[in-house]
Amino acid sequence: MCVYRRPSSDMSHFATAMSRLTSYLSACQSASSNVTHHTVIMGDFNLDWFDHQTLARMSSLLPEYRQLVTQITTDYASALDRVYRSIPADQIQCYVGESYFSDHKPVTVFIDIDQHRMISIIYLQQTICHFKQIFILCRQLFQCRNTDRCK
C-alpha cells in the first residue's frame, strides 16, 4: 500500500483512514485463511520519525507492523517517508538513496519471493512510481510460482 498524508491534514482523519486500511487488510487475510498475507505500507507520512510523539502515535496506529526506515529521508534531516512491514525481517530489506531532483530521498524496498526471485519497489515522494505495473509484476510472479514456464 502506498500512503501520502498532506502536512496540513488533521491527525484524527489520518488515524481513521489508517484504521480503515488496517481493518480492510485484516479482512482480506481472514477471507483467505489458506494463504499467508504479508503487507508493506510505505509512503510520505509527513510525520517526522525522529519526533517521539510521532513514534508513539504511529506505533499505536500500526501495532502489527514494524517500521524499516532508520535514517533521514529528506534534505532537511527529517524522516517523513517510511516503510511499515508485516513481512518477516529476513525477507525484506530497505534502503534510502539520493535524489538530485527532489528534497525527498528515494526509498527502495526489496522483497524476497523465493530463492531465485526478488521484487524491488521504489517510492519517491515527487515521482509517483508505476504501482499498477508493480502490482501486475507481483501477480505474475506469484501466479507462476509453481509452474514450469517461470523457470
Structure, explained:
With about 150 residues, the protein is an alpha+beta fold. The longest helix is centred in the first third of the chain and has 21 residues, at about 10-30. It contains 3 helices and 7 strands, in the order βαβαβββββα. It has one domain. It has a 4-stranded mixed β-sheet, with no helix packed on it. A 3-stranded antiparallel β-sheet has the order 5-6-7, covered by helices on one side. The chain has helices at about 10-30, 50-60, 130-145; strands spanning about 1-5, 40-45, 65, 80-85, 90-95, 105-115, 115-125.
Sequence of secondary-structure elements = EHEHEEEEEH
- The Cα radius of gyration reads 16 Å
Helix content: 25-40%
Distance between the termini: 29 Å
Categorize the overall geometry.
Answer: globular
| β-sheet strand percentage | 15-25%
Mean of pLDDT: 77
Parts with pLDDT < 50 across at least 5 consecutive residues: 126-137, 140-151
Decide which structural class fits the backbone: alpha+beta
Number of strands: 7
Number of helices: 3
Largest sheet: 4 strands, mixed
Number of domains: 1
> Order of strands side by side in the largest beta sheet?
1-2-4-3
Task: Please provide a brief summary of the model.
This protein is α+β, with helices and mostly antiparallel strands and 151 residues long. The chain has helices spanning 11-31, 52-61, 131-143, and strands at residues 2-4, 40-44, 66-67, 81-85, 92-96, 107-114, 117-123.
Topology:
Layout: E1 2-4, H1 11-31, E2 40-44, H2 52-61, E3 66-67, E4 81-85, E5 92-96, E6 107-114, E7 117-123, H3 131-143
Parallel strand pairs: 1-2
Antiparallel strand pairs: 2-4, 3-4, 5-6, 6-7
